[in-house]
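Much of our argument rests on the idea that a fold can be written as discrete symbols. This step matters because it turns folding into a mapping between discrete strings. The record that follows shows the chain in one-letter code together with its fold in token form.
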Amino acid sequence: MRQMIQNCQLFANRALPMLFLVSAGLLVTACTDNLITRFPPPDVVLLQQAQQDDPTITMTDLDHGRKLYLTNCTACHSAEPIERYSLVDWQVILPDMSAESKFNARQERDVSAYVLSYRRMLAQQSTP
């Protein structure tokens, strides 16, 4: 009986922490995959969209805008799916939220370029 208790304690001490780490890793992976799906990193198509409004926008600017959206905007609320609001809605929301976040001009430009370009791209994809 004593040996059985020791075996159970050994299992609890070794296996359960490992099980926890594996579970946590799977959760992080699932969340990361969801973020990439919902808020994809910029690509050439998104860059072309952004450059229609501002030819000086770079891939680095769009990536900066995405990072701002996913970090600063989520300080007060969850990251809203970009498709939730129309392009016109975002054109009203972004200046207000940029002011609320105390973004400087470059930060506002970058986050707006990312969100508006991505929203425009989604609208074009849904048009038959």
